[in-house]
Amino acid sequence: MNSMSNTATVPAARTHVLKERNMRWYFGTQLVSLTGLMLRSSLLSLLLIDLLGPVKAAPLTGAVWALNVLPGAFFGVFAGIFLDRFDKCRILKITAVLGLIQALMLA
Predict the structure, then answer these.
(1) Could you read off the pLDDT of 8-31 as tens digits, one per residue?
(2) pTM > 0.85
(3) What is the spatial distance between Cα 77 and Cα 83, in angstroms, rounded to a whole number?
(4) If DSSP codes are grouped into helix, strand and coil, which group holds residue 91?
(5) What's the alpha-carbon Rg for the chain, to the nearest Å?
(6) Is 55 exposed, middle or buried (0-12, 13-18, 19+ CB in 10 A)?
(7) Rounded distance between C-alpha atoms, residue 79 and residue 27, angstroms
(8) What is the rounded CA–CA span in Å between residue 100 and residue 103?
(9) How much of the chain is in helix, strand and coil states, percent to nearest 5?
């Protein structure tokens, strides 16, 4: 018996994920959010270069990128355990307001 003839088919539920309205919203908002995060990280580095000059800012630019990643890497697991005790909708609203305040301060 040939093993190539027994190819597994992908269930229909997995091939039509984007037909669901909520999934389209989820993927669209994630795309906008990740684009914003990448722009913010890049613009912070450019702001640092503009303020300090290219020679002084070169070593600090790497530090800015590392400081963007390290808190999430270290505290992400513990924060998830801690935040499971609270209302997720309220936590998301607080997080969105804090992100807005940060964006306004940078502007």
Answers:
(1) 555 555 667 778 888 888 888 889
(2) no
(3) 10
(4) helix
(5) 21
(6) exposed
(7) 24
(8) 5
(9) 85, 0, 15
